[in-house]
Amino acid sequence: MARRLDVTGADGIRLAAWDYTAVSALTATTAEDGGTAAGPEARAGAGPAGARPAGATAVSIARQPSGPEDRPAPAVPPAPAEPAEALAAPTGAPVLLLHGLMGHAGHWAPAAGLLTGGHRTIALDQRGHGASEKPPGGPFTREAYVADAAAVIERLGLGPVSLVGHSMGALTAWQLAAERPDLVRALVICDMRASALGAASQRAWQDWFRGWPAPFPSLDAVHRWFGADDPWVETPNPARGAFFAEVMTERADGWHPVFAPAQMLTSRETWVHDAHWDSLAQVRCPTLVVRGLDGELGRAEAQEMVRVLPHGAYAEIPDAGHLLHYTHPEAWAEAVGPFLTGVLTP
Hints:
The chain has helices spanning 109-112, 142-155, 168-179, 199-210, 219-229, 238-245, 261-269, 277-281, 299-308, 324-327, 329-344; strands spanning 2-8, 14-19, 29-31, 58-62, 93-98, 119-125, 161-166, 184-190, 248-251, 254-257, 287-292, 312-317. The protein has 346 residues and is of the alpha/beta class.
């Protein structure tokens, strides 16, 4: 079970974070049926924008989806918000986990459970994802994602933090590390490329979203399509089906993604056309580049990223693909854990 933290991001956007650290000093209100897939309206502590001081957090204990057996829960009544100043500060070197495009904080649950010893481990639902706000007009720019991460670090008192990012979340992490070195002690990049993907890649994603048979009649149908029937699946991949089942919510006509596909395309549009080697080279903290053997980041590019980084290191997860932390949490933790222990132990 993870404790939910509601925090204000950049431009006043409401974000949900999940604290995987068991800290008995924090008092919270229990909400047995909470969960990220219910959407921003189900946020514990939610209320009018002016209901709490800027930068304050509302805390509740909520059931965080952690596997394909979890189902989106109904909205829960708002829990009383507590100002951040009233909460006891947890101990341990802080780690902030940033999911990739279309993901949510719960995808870190298996891996996060292996990193909590000695660390305060928090996963963020980034804007447009999970239980965080999804403003129709955005923005969903690189600057917005980076600013949100900085705001969360500052308002939860995590800095300097170890940033662990997967895919798009890794790009956010290293761009923040380059821009705000005062906030970042160490960095882990999970299966994210520094080279440009190009316009053809964006067009392929547009076509892919159009091909989704949404709404899905059941979660089993979600599993089947993303795990086997999706034309992008070369061989049956049940873990991929489970990954997408965790970011679906039920409506009157069937199951829909909790995110808006158009917002995901907009988010992606802001980084796929450019290379990101320059910002990578500006990262001065210790950095671990991790790839799955069958992931999207090739070995040669990963090793070049390590060479470009002033303090880079390399790790590889055998048998893993792009979703390396989700499908192989033990192997992932074996690769990442020693790095975090070495640079984050106070």
